[in-house]
Amino acid sequence: MVRIALDAMGGDHAPAAPVAGAVRAARAWGYEVQLVGREAEVRTALRQQGDLTGVEHLLHIVHAPEVIEMSEHPAAAVRSKRHSSMAAGVDLVKKGGADAFVSAGNTGGVLATALLGLRRIEGITSERPALAAQLPTLKGTSIMLDVGANVDVKPEWLAQFALMGSIYAEIALGKQRPSVATLEGKGNATLVEAIPLIRALPIHYVGNVEGKDVTAGAVDVVVVDGFAGNIFLKGGEGVVSTITEMLRQEMTRNPLRAALALGLRPAFRALRRRLSYEEYGGVPLLGVNGVCIVAHGRSTPYAIQNAIRAGAQCVELRLIERIRDRLASLNV
Known about the structure:
The protein is an alpha/beta fold. It has 13 helices and eleven strands.
């Protein structure tokens, strides 16, 4: 049975959304979820879920008196709040009490807490881990990293992101020789310095791609700094919402279009599901020596449910062990 440590205090709608998501995940897949946070608040949120028959034994509260708020400076908060829900959740993974940690809280706080508590995977030389998102494309799925963990990066970090992304694509997407590219922008100095380092790695680096190539599925892995990656991701979410609303408006302008819309509704619903962040739930923080999933700050219970599933899938894939083994085989 997969055991998930969930930051019950993380996110814009905590603890209600995380707790509801945990209940949904326990019911759907039988995962054991440890709800880490202020006990009284978590217990109240749990009572609001109503009848827990059949899943009550899968849900456990782990008291953590402090919370790293979304607005706090990550490094300062991690240092001053040693008993936060993030610290307690990461510690459960470190000590073997949980198989994965999931949080919709302060992204920088998760990064700093995970790096401090779990350290880096042996063989990873980058000082910072990266968030790796799976993006739906015209050809299937591609991976982009970093999508928000590191606003400012060093050339050697980008090279390590490329290496981790290539290995992750092998494991998660089943690619034998994944193609890796850097996202072309204005050619900033950091990227220019990183390219020779990436070319020297034992991966299939194909050069630069443009934004349109990413959504077309031209490559398997796209390497970018966290600032640009986060803008790409959030911009995509905005485009999906806007196009969906525009389609709704156009299809309801007259009775004929409205009738046509009824027939197309299943297709539109399927497309929206495919593009929605809620379906993916969260993304792994690659580079730390343990499974850590970062979810969207405004995650709904459904998104949290799927973030928990994402963590469980990483555990079932033996993601950390396989990254470690692959690094050893590459001898980098």
